[in-house]
Structure formats: structure tokens, C-alpha cells
Amino acid sequence: MPIDPSEALVVGVDYGTLSGRAVVVRVADGAELGSAVFEYPHAVLTDTLPVGDVRLGPDWALQVPQDYVDVLRYAVPAALADAGADPAAVIGIGTDFTACTMVPTLADGTPLNELPAFADRPHAYVKLWRHHAAQPQADRINELAAARGESWLPRYGGLISSEWEFAKALQLLEEDPEVYSTMERWVEAADWIVWQLTGSYVRNACSAGYKGILQDGRYPDQEFLAALNPGFADFVTAKLDQPIGALGAAAGTLSVEAAAWTGLPVGIPVAVGNVDAHVTAAAGNAVEPGQMVAIMGTSTCHVMNGAELREVPGMCGVVDGGIVAGSWGYEAGQSGVGDIFAHFVETQVPASYSEAAAADGVTVHEYLTRLAATQRVGQHGLVALDWHSGNRSVLVDHELSGLLLGETLATRPEDIYRALLEATAFGTRTIIETFAGAGVPVSELFVVGGLTKNKLLMQIYSDVTRLPLSLITSAQGPALGSAIHAAVAAGAYPDVRAAAARMGRVERAVYTPDEAAAARYDQLYDEYRQLHDHFGRGGNRVMRRLRAIRREAMAEATTAGTDAEALTGAASNGAADGAPQTPAVAR
């Protein structure tokens, strides 16, 4: 029976850092009828692998690709059930992914970690976007590209990130040549999951352009790659290159196997893969020049369209049609935002605060926010740098680290918490000003993600940036964006702009700048920028030196054991022998 167009549905699936989210959306108006979340059982591997006793080094972040397939098997059917939807009404499915998240595979798409011989080899696993251990390789790529005057380098703000495809692949080659030799495809996870859905491998234009250094139809040439490492010369032709699919097009149709996983009809169109940030612009109908979208979660990605090509220092790339056809899509970002707040709450808040929050029936985040909201701007006397996960834009340096200045014996946890909120807003303002200085002005900030629930944070962002903040009201913005692309792939709309105009969901100017607060933030921002440039632009390279010392110490600890372990062992042996124990000393 033909589907009534007014009742046609699409499914969007958003793959985040810790979970995958599926949403069922009505094609006619973008109404979200049902959703479900599947938490990755293996989460993020930062210390050890799931098998064996192999320990990971500093700045590693891996994942298990089976977790991604399980999102299709569990979240999609659960979302359909939540919506009370007839699967036969679904006319298409779209997906998006964190980027740059890379899967090393055989020619048929089998991930290398699923081969018994490589189950205990770290380089056989997925390298998550926040895997920053390839910074030395990124440094060499940047130095060589600058020395050779490579024409593609300015389109990435003059710096290639350690998070991206080439740096991570070069690290794999140099640290585990056997795994690299066995690898036949180096696949963005955004494309790998579409491969699993359709049985065909199509590379999406977004990931290829922003993360794969594909500009004007060409990757870095063989001569450049050979100069990095002779074994890397054929990387593009042998392991990376693949047909490119346009955003909003169909990559193929749902296979019999994937239909069984998801409960969806066999043969429905599957949209070309996409990146979580870029797909979200459609969810808020924020696709015109000057409309910057900030997707705020563990990290923040900033995307916007421009009418003209400009070279913006320190951005993550500019790609023709990288967000929607007919515009230049720009990307920037911050490597740590929600992660920074979570780290502070999990490791540096005293038990008395947790107890007080529990007594009030709120989370520690909510309790700290409530206390911080009572302060006047600048009352805490602090300024922080938001580099706990390095700096993605505009410095593109993941050897940088966090900093807090102004702490005294009177400083309270809520003071530091507010300073960290402000630091991330200062980081966004740095990005906005850099774009404006390069001739790509930002007139409005659209925000989406779980952090939009924090009203204090949103007002701080508006005050710091001096911009109105519009909220993309979908609880699952990227998933809605993927659903919009699925509707286009299914032929329900002629293009993404038309679909976004009908299906996007946004509340305009929910937050506007307070002039008195903005003026005081201008003062604090001046201090932030001085610290930003001093520690980030070569005035003092202490953060990099500390990272190097840490790596050396951790390597020694891994191979020889730490003094602390030796002392603990000695103390334990003494206690077992009945030796007297020294009482603890309060410090």
C-alpha cells in the first residue's frame, strides 16, 4: 500500500562520543515522534584494550566498531517502538558521526581489531576523534607543507590537526607497520556505518574535505607523502581514495542484513554519511551566511556557511558544499567543553558539595551553577584557559593544556567552575573574531546540545560574544539533521535547504547580551587573550615541555614500575609481617 506523504517518516542516527541516538521524524514538518539512546558498552578506551593487558599511552582514545553496529540493532528498533511507528512508513535513514574517527579495515570492511591476530594491537582499533597521540606526525605534516608551500594548507588555516586522517594514518604506519600493511581501507566511521547499512563503500564529501585534505578534487600528492615517509607514498591510492558522495544524496539502499538489525524496510534509501556538527546546521535551518552553529557537548564544533572562499587562520577547513550545496562551508572547534566541566566535577569538587547537592535533589553541576550564578562578572578573580584537551581552533595544537590563574586561599569550587564556563565562551569568541578578521563575519550564534540546558552558560556565551543566541530546540539536533538528509535522499525534498526550512526546529534570540556584563567580560577577555597568545603562540612553551616530561615518566613507569608501587609493595609486606605502620599525617 502506498505511503500517505503526510505520514511518511525518516530515521536519523547520531553517533556521539559515548553513545548512539536514533530519532523517528515526520517528513512533513520535522516533528520528532520517538527516540532512543544506546550507550557504547566499551565507551572510550584510554587506558587498556578490552583483551589482554596492553596499556595505552598518553592521549590515546580508541573505540570498538561493534558498538556502532549495536546502535542500529538496539536504538533504531527502540525509537520506532517509542514513536509507535509502523516501520513500513519509513522512507529513508540517515546517519552522522563524530569526526575524525577512523576505522582500519580489510577490503570488505572488516575492522582489523576483529581479526584474532590483531585483537591485542591498539592500532587495529578505531581511533576516536579525540585521539591526540598523533601530534608529532601532525607537526611534521605542517612543517613539510609550509616548507613546500602546499596550496591546500591555507584552506585549513595553515595547520593540519592531529585528529585528522593523515596524521593518524602516519602514526599507524610508523608505530605498527604490520597493522598498516594489513589494512586495505582507512575509513571514516561516518562512511563505515553507511557501508554496513548498504553493503557499498561511498566516501562522504564532508569528511573527505574537512578531515581528509581533499581540495579541488585532489588529495596531497605522492611526492609529498613520500617525503613524510617512503612507506606512506601510496597511502591515498592504496588505502584512502574512494568515490565521493554528495551530502543529501543516497549512498545506496538498506540491505537485507541491515533491515533485520533495524526493523526497517529492505531497499529504502540510505543517505550519504555526514559529520555530526555539519549535519546539525540543517536541524536549526541555520544554513545562510553569518549563521554560526555551535554544537556543544563534550567538545564544541562551530560550522557556518559563507558566500565566498576565505582563508581563516586556525580553522578546521573550508569546503565547497561542505554543509550545503552552493555555499562554502567553514568549520572550527574546541576540543574540550563539557569534558572540562565534567572533569572538574568528577575530580576536584569536595564531598561536602556532593552531599549538599544530593540534599537539594540536584546534580553537582546544577548545584555549582546555582552558586556561580549569584556572582557578579569577575567577582571570582580568576581567568582560565580551556585547553584541557588541547586547542583545536585557532591554534591547532593538542600539546597545549589547561591553566587557571588567580587562585587564592579564598577561592571556592563554584568560582573555578564559573571560570571554566567563561573560558569556553572566551574560546568561542576567539574563533568568532578570527573569522570576522578574515572577512567571514558572524551575525548570529545557534546553539544545540545538552549544555543548552544550563541557562547561566548560555547567558555567559551571549554576553561574552555580544551576539544573540538562538537555540536549536531538538533534543537530538544531529539526529534530526541526519533525518533531514534522509528525507532529501528519499526524494521528499529537492535539496537540504528546502528540507531544513520545513523540518528544522529553532527558537530565535532566546538569549541576548547584557551590556554591563558584556563590558566586564571585555576586560576579562583581554586577559584571556594575553594568556592565549603567550602560552599558545610561542611566548612560553612550558605546556609542551610538561607534556614531554609526562610522556617520559609514563614510559618509565610502564616498563619498570613506579616508585609509588614499590613503596606500596614494601609497606604491604611489612604490614603482613607485623611491622609497625606509620600513622597517616594530615597535610
TrEMBL record:
Record has Transferase as a keyword: yes
GO CC annotation terms, alphabetical: cytoplasm
EC number: 2.7.1.16
Region (Disordered): 557-587
Family annotation (Gene3D superfamilies): 3.30.420.40
Family: Belongs to the ribulokinase family.
Name recorded for this polypeptide: Ribulokinase
Organism this protein belongs to: Micromonospora pisi
